[in-house]
Amino acid sequence: MEPIRIGLLGCGTIGGGVVKLWRRNRQMLARKLGVPVELAGVAELELKRTRALGLSASLVTREAAALVARPEIDIVIELLGGYEPARSLILKALEAGKDVVTANKALLAEHGEAIFQAADRAGRSVGFEASVGGGVPIIRTLREGLAGDRQRAVYGIVNGTCNFILSTMSEHDVEFRDALADAQRAGLAEANPALDVEGHDAAHKLCLLVALAFGCTLKPAQVYTEGITRITQADIAYARELGFAMKLLAIAKDDDGRIEARVHPTMVPLGHPLASVGGAFNAIYIHGEALGSTMYFGLGAGEMPTATAVMADVLQIARERLAAREGAIVRAHAQGYPIRWLKPARVKPMQDVVCEYYLRFMAPDKPGVLGAIASVLGRNAISIASVIQKGRGAERTVPVIMRTHEARERNLKRALAEIHRRGMTGTAPAFIRIEERL
Ligand SMILES: NC(=O)c1ccc[n+]([C@@H]2O[C@H](COP(=O)([O-])OP(=O)(O)OC[C@H]3O[C@@H](n4cnc5c(N)ncnc54)[C@H](OP(=O)(O)O)[C@@H]3O)[C@@H](O)[C@H]2O)c1
Fold first, then answer.
1. Ligand 1 atom closest to the CA of 81, numbered from 1
2. 46 CB within 6 A, ligand 1
């Protein structure tokens, strides 16, 4: 029987994992499919990586475009990362009648529409399970398991690096800088961690979740994005005192056709399942109109978890190709990306978002300050739910922690700007959004 032939672009962390998983499971894959899956070629610039994996030199090339052009290859697995040449190579592969599997969320968030349209035109598939949640099969879940329902809200812990840092800060009472160094030592954060800790990676993933959950196209620039670099250990401790855990959440809600899409540090009730997701784990909590709430949990990155998602896409696409060989009419519809259903998202401006807030002021320790702050908040339609004022120390300012009732972001920002402008607090007030009813 003719095998299914795969061509692998990039043999770094995830590409290396795919090679290992393919070797470990190739007999099982052949039994599942009825034909072998053959690794027909690998494109990699750093040849010591392919040598370390024991790949024979005849299998390896530095010329990714030449590998994509080889007529016998059925499925191209793009694991190079970045925008170019990944985008052009994927388009070339689709034009040449090959299917594609990728883990490249940054590329799909920015250029996904064009890629999926090209796949649709070519009648080919683009599998992208590995692009969100690593080993957590959230793309399949939204596309298939939840497809009959209307989704109302998605809350994702989708960046394991940030979750590891916030968990470390919480469990070991350390500041961001030390927790980041721990993450780097554990191989969970890049030397330049900006994409993760500034929230951009989570925003890329949110764009893909929004497309699948709500049928809307959204660009990363339309997602309000705030990272975790300003979170202090004290904020995490006060959050706990108020009954909350600190998480970087990617949040999307369908508010009567207007899409709320935001990534920011969020306080979630300690009793909520998302609060107990620690370390480098990911979880996606989805609220469906008919189903109610479900949560999907697992390792969101790393070579083997992500490789399993890549391999699942390879198997699914291989089945489609085999069905086509047997004469079945298979049109892939871009591997379930809702290309026909999609419309541009009508994004709700961040200023209109309503939620509860945690506020931290460093206030001079003298009478009347608390009253003055409360009065500015009141004038801006922000009512206070509770206050924690820490005891007097030697310092001239003391932390005042407030939790508000639901308020509009526009009002909150205006009030905090006035409080700061009028010099009521030592440093700029800090605020963190609370999701109480998720
Ligand atoms: N790492 C994770 O946990 C994870 C999880 C989910 C998704 N992903 C996604 O998976 C993709 C791959 O990530 P990764 O962590 O495996 O990255 P990586 O370790 O940097 O691997 C990429 C590999 O591709 C090689 N490469 C780059 N350009 C090339 C070209 N033109 N021709 C041939 N080889 C080329 C790189 O070689 P050089 O180093 O010499 O450039 C490197 O070995 C990315 O899109 C990433 O966002 C990663």
1. 45
2. yes
- Could you tell me the distance, in angstroms and rounded to a whole number, from the CA of residue 14 to the centre of ligand 1? 7
Q: Which of 205, 247, 253, 348 is catalytic?
A: 205
Structure tokens at 266: 């969020």
Tens digit of each residue's pLDDT (9 = 90 or more) over 100-112: 999 999 999 999 9
* Calpha distance 277→335 (Å, rounded): 30
pTM of the model: 0.96
146 vs 214, 255, 285, CA distance in Å? 12, 19, 12
Amino acid at 147: A
pLDDT in tens, 118-166: 999 999 999 999 999 999 999 999 999 999 999 999 999 999 999 999 9
- Rounded CA-CA distance 277/133 in Å is 13
CA dihedral 42, 94, 204, 290 (to 10 degrees): -120
Sign of CA dihedral 183, 189, 191, 195: negative
Ligand 1 pocket mutation pick from 47, 63, 79, 163 by most atoms within 8 angstroms of CB: 79
Binding site membership of 49 for ligand 1 (Cβ less than 6 Å): yes
